[in-house]
């Protein structure tokens, strides 16, 4: 069950893990995909609309029975970015400064993925840069979809 | 709308405001409501509606007392009342104001007390103390927080500001010009907390929180309550202060929280543009008629979007507009004449309503009075939800 089976050691503290996804019925496919190094986005089989964050109904055609995860290219462009200097969570205290990016997906630029860029100095990040997904285990048992330059 | 059907604002009041006041929410509310009732000489039996907005930014301090609209009505002996509304979400104080205006327009109540109360510590303390062990995040936030998107400073402010800079060439100095301008206004306001003048060097030397956002771009967390009383035009002249009229008002939502700030389709063109379109569509007045604008400044970039959304400058042109000095006192459109939430403290929009009313009363703003102010606009929130209200002096 992918990330839903993540085991946190009793001794783990907030400094050891970033906020951890609490998987639910609608989101388990996404995190199982990540565990298998695939980026999956919910898509309506009736009208083709991508739906992210996951919802039980298509906002375009109201289909409820024909929604399924679809593997996307993992490519996109940087919509915006910031370099965070002040940590607001114990895990990030020794990570600052760290970048945060919002990626507009190639399949549909209105689908936005929040993530981090892994292979470029923070000050060199620019809007519009082409990126592609890469999967990294950031803490024991916790893999996240991050991005690198395409 | 026929003139006689308008809603009027008749009384305003603030509580003690500051950091670590030691006052709980009931105490803060009691002070602010008392001040607003005294401001216009109204009695509890003349009020038949209460709207309270009590949400706070970030995690609640431990032990915070519970309060809702009925608690307020009961404390002041207003029962029975015919309209009440309490909520934690939405675009802060303007949600309460629009609710009250709509209740009066529909006849559910004739005189509605609106209250905004915030009781909170420093943002950094809240964030730190809210985390005990490893944190599991449910809902939409599971797609944002694991990557370190954990504070509105990043999502409401840094991401849109960065995009505005790269898209339109907006500069740090243009953000700084606004910060300096509204601090100068605060120096003229006895209710302001931050009153020392700032230079551009002060701004540029202010530490980054999340680039390009500096500490001086962020509003200032405080304990505070604000109260504003609305009534019908017919009743408005029965009270001590000159009434100020709601010319048009609008509320907009274009997406959901908590993670909606990161997926608004256009980070520089979202609900404020919708709210502005609605507001201007409900009046014959035009942007050129506005004498002063009180624009929500939870972060500097929000003011910039509102200037564009409300049509005071072209889209993408807020940087040069601010840099030109137009938004200073004495400029063509003085903005945040009370100093804004960065300087009067985070009152979550209520200060912009109160400052608009004071400017339009014409004799309460002292050295920061905008000469012959007849039309004011105030606005609250940004991103997935927001609202705007246009007010007139006659």
UniProtKB/TrEMBL annotation, chain A:
It holds the Pfam family OB_ChsH2_C. Residues 71-136 form the ChsH2 C-terminal OB-fold domain. Residues 31-63 form the ChsH2 rubredoxin-like zinc ribbon domain. InterPro entries: ChsH2_C, ChsH2_Znr, NA-bd_OB-fold, Thioester_dehydratase-like. PANTHER family: BLR3430 PROTEIN. This is Unannotated protein. It comes from freshwater metagenome.
Automatic annotation (TrEMBL), chain B:
This is Unannotated protein. PANTHER family: ACETYL-COA C-ACETYLTRANSFERASE, NON-SPECIFIC LIPID-TRANSFER PROTEIN-LIKE 2. GO terms for molecular function: acyltransferase activity, transferring groups other than amino-acyl groups. Residues 280-388 form the Thiolase C-terminal domain. It holds the Pfam family Thiolase_C_1.
């Amino acid at each position: 069950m992918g990330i839903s089976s993540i085991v946190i050691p009793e001794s783990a503290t907030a400094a050891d893990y970033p906020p951890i996804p609490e998987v639910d019925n609608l989101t388990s496919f996404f995190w199982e995909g990540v565990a298998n190094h695939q980026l999956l986005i919910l898509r309506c089989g009736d009208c083709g609309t991508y739906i992210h964050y996951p919802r039980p109904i298509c906002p375009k055609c109201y289909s409820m029975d024909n929604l399924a995860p679809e593997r996307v290219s993992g490519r996109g462009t940087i919509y915006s970015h910031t370099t965070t200097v002040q940590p607001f969570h114990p895990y990030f205290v020794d990570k600052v400064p760290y970048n945060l990016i919002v990626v507009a997906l190639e399949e549909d630029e209105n689908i936005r993925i929040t993530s981090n860029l892994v292979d470029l100095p923070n000050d060199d990040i620019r809007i519009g840069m082409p990126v592609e997904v890469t999967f990294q285990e950031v803490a024991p048992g916790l893999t996240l979809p991050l991005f690198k330059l395409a | 709308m026929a003139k006689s059907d308008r809603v009027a604002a008749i009384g305003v009041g603030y509580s003690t405001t500051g950091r670590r006041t030691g006052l709980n929410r009931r105490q803060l509310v009691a002070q602010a409501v008392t001040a607003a009732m005294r401001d216009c000489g109204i009695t509890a039996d003349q009020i038949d509606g209460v709207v309270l907005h009590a949400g706070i930014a970030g995690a609640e301090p431990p032990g915070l007392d519970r309060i809702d609209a009925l608690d307020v009505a009961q404390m002041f002996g207003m029962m029975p009342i015919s309209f009440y509304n309490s909520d934690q979400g939405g675009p802060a104080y303007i949600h309460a104001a629009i609710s009250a205006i709509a209740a009066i327009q529909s006849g559910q109540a004739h005189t509605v007390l609106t209250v905004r109360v915030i009781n909170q510590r420093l943002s950094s303390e809240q964030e730190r103390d809210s985390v005990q062990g490893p944190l599991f995040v449910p809902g939409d936030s599971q797609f944002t927080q694991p990557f370190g998107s954990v504070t509105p400073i990043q999502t409401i402010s840094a991401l849109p500001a960065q995009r505005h800079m790269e898209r339109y060439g907006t500069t740090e100095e243009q953000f700084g010009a606004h910060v300096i301008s509204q601090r100068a206004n605060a120096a003229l306001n006895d209710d302001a907390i931050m009153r020392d003048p700032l230079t551009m060097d002060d701004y540029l030397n202010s530490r980054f929180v999340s680039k390009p956002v500096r500490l001086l771009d962020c509003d200032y967390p405080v304990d505070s309550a604000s109260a504003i009383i609305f009534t019908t035009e017919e009743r408005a002249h029965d009270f001590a202060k000159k009434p100020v009229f709601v010319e048009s008002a609008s509320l907009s939502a274009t997406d959901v929280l908590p993670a909606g700030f990161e997926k608004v389709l256009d980070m520089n063109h979202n609900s404020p543009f919708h709210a502005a379109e609605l507001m201007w569509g409900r009046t014959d007045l035009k942007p050129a008629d506005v004498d002063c604008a009180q624009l929500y400044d939870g972060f500097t970039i929000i003011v910039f979007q509102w200037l564009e959304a409300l049509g005071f400058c072209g889209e993408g042109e807020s940087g040069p507009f601010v840099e030109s000095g137009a938004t200073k006192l004495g400029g063509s459109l003085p903005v945040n004449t009370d100093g804004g939430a960065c300087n009067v403290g985070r009152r979550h929009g209520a200060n912009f309503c109160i400052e608009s009313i004071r400017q339009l009363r014409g004799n309460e703003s002292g050295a920061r009075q905008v000469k012959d102010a007849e039309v004011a606009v105030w606005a609250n929130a940004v991103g997935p939800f927001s609202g705007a209200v246009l007010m007139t002096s006659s």
